[in-house]
Every structure is written in structure tokens, then in C-alpha cells.
Amino acid sequence: MSDSGRAIGALTPRELIELLDRMNPADVAAMDIDVDAIGRAIDPRTLGKNDLTALLGSLNRLAEAGADVDLAGMGAETFARIIAHASRDQVQSIMKDAGLRARVLGEVFRRMGSHLRADRVRDLHAVVHWRLTGGAGEGGYDRYQTVIDNGVCTVGREMDERSRVTITVSPVDFLKLITNNASAPVLFMTGKLKVRGDLAFAAGLIGLFDLPRP
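Now predict its structure.
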């Protein structure tokens, strides 16, 4: 671990939030801070309901200003651990911030291709439409399209292909699901995950991806 990583790890949650709030991109570069080191220092269990939102919001602000702390640099296991330890209230707080919601969900869908298990999708062509509740799009949904074709998964926001299955779920349950912190069958049986189309394919969909574990 770098000196800066150890220093970040020694900070209290409040100190870390205050440090990020004061920083500019030049400070990040001078301290040679990487976003995964910050992610590893975050324990949502020690944070208040809105503190995790404030912390991620500070990272997003720095990234938009040009600092090398974009969420794309955070390891999948690090992100999965944060979501695993975050309460529903904390994740809901993040999702209420329109900018963070778009950034976090966009990053999750962007990474889907790298987690696809090519050995399980040879010769498969399938289109999945995702509808995440509480969004700003038509009908109150954020919509994403994933296309699995010849061992590759591509993601877009245009629903321009006929879907094999359409999945409707809250963003909180979606994040818990794709970080191995929720069960798709349980979400389905309790009405928190709704499926239209090929139910058998939907039941095995998560198994087509090598999901990160915290």
C-alpha cells in the first residue's frame, strides 16, 4: 500500500469526507491518490445515512474537474464491498442524487461486458431490457439495454432491439443483486423484481456473469 493509501486508511470517516471536500485535482495528483485506495478506506457501517452520498459526491466532483479518481478506477470487489456494507437507506440516498445515480448505474452497466462468462454464452443472442424505478425517463424509469451476442455483452440506453426479457427492479435491489448481496429468486417471489418475457432465461441470467464478491 502506498503512503497516501495508509494515510487515507488512518482517517476517520468524517475526516475523509472533509479532506475530499477541500481537495482539488492538483491536490489529488500531488498526493498520488487512487480511487480504489479511497474505496478500501470506506466502511459504510461507520457512516451516517447521507455521509456515503456526500463522500461519493466529492469523488464525482473531483473526477468531473479532471482528477484521476473516477469510479471507473475502483475495483469491482471494492465496490461490491461498499454496497454489501451499505444500508438500504444509504443506497437510497445515493439514488436520490440524480448525478450520482446516473454515474453509479452507468458504471455498473459499463462493466457488465467484462464480467460476462464467455464459456456460458457461446452462440447465444439475447436482448435484456432493464427498467430501474424512480428514474427520470419515460414512465419514471431509467432504462438500459444489454445485448449478449457471440460471447460479447454491449450496453446502451436506446431500446432499439426486441427484448427476450424485460426486468423491472428498484436501483437499490439491482445494486444489491449484482454485487451478490441479494437473491434474484427471493426478489422475484417477494414482488421486488418483475419479469416480462422468457422466465426460464431470466432465472439463469445472473449465472451468465461472474459477479464480484465483497
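The first strand starts at residue 125 and ends at 133.
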